[in-house]
Specification:
The chain is of the alpha/beta class. It has 9 helices and 7 strands. It has a 4-stranded parallel beta sheet. The chain has a 3-stranded mixed beta sheet with strand order 5-6-7. A hairpin with a 2-residue loop joins strand 5 and strand 6. Helix 4 crosses helix 7 and helix 6 packs antiparallel against helix 7.
């Protein structure tokens, strides 16, 4: 089976089955027939199930861990999943993030011994996980931004199983098109249309927030040279509506910042009963 056939098969399974999923961010141990995504100890081979988590390893993301884990570990995955397929597991997730979904797809590619995996997507996931919102694409062309808007929408109270399916569908469709994750074209996918709609809604709400938030310039100490100060734009606001892409909008806003380099510092707080964590009771 080659990469393209694998993607077609995965998408078919997704369309024909409602994958069993549990949103349990505090889980640590994987039970039999369970795959933990971004949770647990990825190097613990004694648990009944499998934890796909890069923490404690040299890898920078779940996606890189899934694609680049050593052959001994991938063999253990294959042994534990002998006779099982994508729809046979229970997926325990921390979130619907780009890295979670790409990591799951690459994990099954390793289990099924698919040879060549998309290195540019793995590198992108590493950058996105590190907080890079500058080199990961512009607004409606960025996989990370579109996916985050869609994931955030589905993490609100509602059908999380549908959200998991939508987010996986978005990644699979983009991979099928061999798209550049930083320059996504318009995709023939209902999940893509949902993501685009939600992203535009979030940007509209961000523009509203700018009207009543506080935009100021602050002199902050420079890293490694605290006696020197750098002037940066900062944004402080009461967060009426939580936005999945707020960080992207703020970091890349050259139009509404005095230095035209985006907001370098932001403080978003909930509407009521907010107490800074550093203050004593």
């Amino acid at each position: 089976m080659n990469w393209q056939h694998f993607l077609d098969e995965f998408l078919t399974v997704l369309e024909q089955n409602s994958l069993e999923m549990n949103h349990q961010p505090a889980r640590w141990q994987a039970g039999e027939n369970e795959l933990l995504l971004g949770l647990g100890n990825g190097l613990d081979n004694l648990q009944a199930g499998i934890s796909l988590n890069q923490k404690g390893t040299p890898h920078k993301s779940v996606a890189e861990f899934a694609a680049c884990a050593d052959s001994q570990l991938s063999s253990i995955w294959q042994q534990k999943l002998a006779g099982k397929d994508i729809a046979d597991l229970v997926y325990v997730i921390e979130d619907f993030s780009p890295d979670t979904c790409l990591g799951l797809i690459l994990f099954w590619a390793r289990v099924k011994a698919i040879g060549e995996l998309p290195r540019e997507w793995i590198d992108y996931s590493n950058r996105w996980e590190s907080g890079d919102v500058k080199t990961t694409g512009k607004f409606e062309q960025s996989w990370g931004v579109l996916h985050s808007a869609l994931a955030h929408y589905h993490l609100q109270p509602g059908n999380k199983r549908e959200g998991f399916k939508d987010c996986l569908s978005l990644v699979l469709c983009a991979l099928q098109q061999a798209a550049d994750p930083a320059h996504l074209p318009e995709l023939p996918s209902a999940a893509y249309q949902k993501a685009l709609f939600q992203l535009r809604y979030e940007h509209q709400e961000y523009e509203k927030a700018l009207q009543h938030g506080l935009s100021i310039q602050l002199a902050v100490p420079m890293a490694g040279s605290p006696q020197r100060q750098l002037l940066v734009d900062a944004f402080i606001n009461q967060e009426e509506i939580a936005l999945g892409c707020a960080k992207y909008f703020l970091r890349n806003d050259s139009e509404n910042t005095w230095r035209r380099q985006g907001f370098s510092l932001m403080a978003l707080y909930p509407p009521r009963h907010w107490i800074p964590a550093s203050l004593p009771e």
